[in-house]
Write a structure and sequence with these properties.
By secondary structure, this protein is an alpha/beta fold. Helix content is 50%, strand content 12%. Strands 3-2-1-4-5-6-7-8 form an 8-stranded mixed sheet, with helices on both faces. Strand 4, helix 4 and strand 5 form a beta-alpha-beta unit.
Length: 281
């Protein structure tokens, strides 16, 4: 059943079919946010799109970005950051004030506007927004920031679309995108490695296997997240409340927490220094 917000026919083009391009495409189709014949996808290796074409025969596929740009009303560009400006230069002759949405961190509006001075939005979705069949398909965060040429109708349509499968956070300024990206798009990998390392330790030092240890941690992580999300509008910090609830004076949790409190400030500062330097390269 087609979603109510999509009242007018609109062709969406996606350039690039890597992890993020694939995730966006999958959500659009599996959640019925767009008809098959309203989607056109371009990828340099068109064979990568063959399996998609088997499931969705009416989706248009091509290896020609220029062809896509003549047919799409909105274009989502999900390529490597180094390739973004070249792609926009390639399709520019076919753009008639077309709304360009890109997912490339580290490329400013000013750099793009030197090539194309039309409506541009930056969307940083998280791979955590990958399609999951459930009553509430919203997963992960999508950060969105628009340049001054994006009108209210186009910004609302884009935000509504991504809100169907993720929690949308509108950023007032693109300067905020760097740290916000680290907090949302990078964080799943850091959470993943933490879960993996804790699971490996549990496996090595107990009679539980690795998957059992990981299951215990993940269920604890989900439960803790739900506790922290409760009453999040309260003036009290739920993190401190959770910490104080779990800790008993001079207990095992407190000793571990004191160690982490000392070490994590320095680790996080160093981590963000590395990431922000890399972001600007």
């Amino acid at each position: 059943m087609q979603k109510e917000f999509k009242s007018d026919k609109m062709t969406i083009g996606i350039i690039g079919y890597g992890n993020i391009g694939h995730m966006i495409c999958e959500n659009l189709l599996k959640l019925n946010l767009i008809n098959e014949d309203e989607l056109i996808i371009s990828n340099r290796n068109i064979e990568k799109l063959n399996s998609l074409k088997e499931y969705y025969p009416n989706v248009k596929i091509t290896d020609d970005n220029k062809k896509l740009s003549t047919e799409a009303d909105k274009i989502i560009i999900s390529v490597e950051s180094d390739d973004l400006l070249n792609v926009i230069s390639e399709i520019k002759p076919n753009l008639n004030n077309t709304h360009i949405i890109h997912t490339c961190a580290g490329i400013s509006f000013e750099e793009i506007e030197n090539i194309y001075n039309g409506p541009i939005s930056l969307v940083i979705p998280s791979i955590a927004s990958e399609f999951i069949e459930s009553d509430n398909p919203q997963n992960g965060i999508s950060l969105i920031v628009h340049n001054d040429n994006v009108n209210f109708i186009d910004s609302s349509k884009l935000e509504t679309l991504f809100n169907e499968f993720s929690y949308v956070k509108i950023l007032p300024d693109e300067e905020d995108i760097e740290i916000a990206t680290i907090l949302t798009s990078c964080a799943p990998a850091y959470i993943g490695i933490l879960v993996k390392k804790l699971s490996e330790f549990g496996f090595k030092h107990t009679n539980l296997d690795y998957d059992e240890c990981k299951y215990l941690i993940l269920k604890t992580l989900i439960g803790s997240s739900e506790v922290l999300l409760k009453n999040r509008a309260s003036s009290d910090d739920n993190c401190d409340k959770l910490i104080n609830t779990v800790c008993t004076p001079n207990g095992i949790t407190e000793k571990g927490l004191n160690y982490l409190d000392l070490e994590l400030d320095e680790i996080i500062e160093e981590l963000f220094d590395i990431l922000l330097k890399t972001y600007k390269e």
